[in-house]
UniProtKB/TrEMBL annotation:
The lineage of its organism: Eukaryota, Fungi, Dikarya, Basidiomycota, Agaricomycotina. This is Tethering factor for nuclear proteasome STS1. Keywords: Cytoplasm, Nucleus, Protein transport, Transport. GO terms for cellular component: cytoplasm; nuclear membrane. The keyword Transport applies. PANTHER family: FI02826P. It is found in: Cytoplasm; Nucleus. Residues 1-96 are annotated as: Disordered. Residues 17-30 have a biased composition (Polar residues). GO terms for molecular function: proteasome binding.
Length: 339
């Protein structure tokens, strides 16, 4: 019978199809899993691609390139306009509101000297203005400056003699051997000593010439200002201290000083003698006997030493005797004895 046969085939066909498809569907995920695992193993064995390596380890060039690009994008400022917050100066409009006195009053004292030195270096015409503003130094401050410069010059003199051994206070200190030979010290060359002394000689002369105008009888008055001559006793004390510092130096130091300062010092002494002569013999002034006696002793001492400095001071002493020596009973026919 054909209908029943068809019904049997239709009934068996769906169940048969499900039975055959079930194992296939169950095996499909396992095969895919094995395929993925194999792909991962192959990928792990392969060398990393460029993108993967860059993701895992970024090269150091990456931030540098970024900075370089940013540097190219930002325009460079001119050298004249590149000012930091520390050295930025007010603009033209802001300068009217700035009180320089307030700023200078709050600056530390040690910063004023470099500032003024730089200002005079950049604008030399301001030197006279600053000198007119500086108050006249006192005799004590000038003598202290001379003493400091003279001490530096004396300490700069190189010595080649043997140095005294340092005292030892430890027990068991070894005594010097009686058979030890004395060390032979060769004298240093004069050229070497002169080179060592040159900067200190210049510093001493600079200190002298910086203070001389305030105690000098030869300095010309500043333009528009009357000449105020110092007192004769004050000038004598300054010149006496200066000459004493020169005489206290070593012979080579004195010789170096004579080359650059002897003529100037003799001129200052001569101008002082002429100033005393002007007051005593032309203006009718007088000085105390103690002051005049001290001048006599000082000039006599400087003229009685040996060396080129004393030769110059002898002329000063003889000039003083010829002009004002009568104040102490001395005349040119009775010159003072050289000590």
């Amino acid at each position: 019978m054909q209908p029943s046969h068809n019904f049997g085939m239709q009934a068996a066909h769906p169940f048969g199809t499900q039975a055959t498809l079930a194992p296939l569907m169950n095996n499909t995920p396992r095969a895919q899993k094995r395929r993925h695992e194999g792909d991962e193993e192959q990928q792990s064995r392969r060398p990393l691609s460029r993108d993967a390596s860059m993701d895992r380890s970024p090269p150091p060039e990456r931030p540098r390139k970024g900075l370089a690009k940013r540097a190219r994008m930002v325009p460079a400022e001119p050298s004249g306009r590149s000012q930091t917050k520390e050295n930025k100066t007010p603009d033209g409009e802001e300068e009217h509101d700035v009180d320089v006195g307030v700023l200078l009053a709050n600056l530390p004292p040690q910063s004023l000297l470099p500032m003024l030195t730089a200002l005079v270096t950049q604008q030399p015409q301001l030197k006279r203005t600053i000198l007119n503003l500086i108050p006249r130094p006192t005799l004590e401050s000038a003598l202290q400056t001379l003493a400091t410069a003279a001490k530096k010059l004396s300490e700069a003199y190189p010595y080649s003699g043997p140095q005294a051994p340092a005292p030892t206070f430890a027990f068991g200190a070894s005594a010097p051997s009686p058979f030890a030979q004395p060390q032979q010290h060769q004298p240093m060359r004069e050229s070497y000593i002169t080179d060592r002394l040159r900067p200190h000689v210049a510093e001493f002369v600079s200190a002298c010439t910086s203070y001389l105008p305030y105690f000098s009888y030869t300095a010309a008055p500043a333009p528009g200002k009357p000449k105020e001559k110092p007192h004769a006793m004050e000038t004598y004390l300054f010149l006496e201290a200066l000459t004493q510092h020169v005489y206290a130096q070593q012979p080579l130091a004195q010789s170096s000083l004579a080359q650059v300062f002897l003529q100037r010092l003799v001129e200052e002494w001569t101008a002082w003698v002429d100033g005393v002569d002007e007051v005593v013999n032309r203006q009718g002034g007088m000085y105390g006997s103690d002051a005049v006696r001290s001048w006599e002793r000082g000039l006599d001492y400087f003229a009685g030493r040996d060396g080129e400095w004393s030769q110059g001071m002898r002329g000063v002493r003889d000039r003083w005797v010829g002009k004002v020596g009568w104040l102490v009973g001395r005349t040119p026919s009775h010159p003072m004895m050289d000590l």
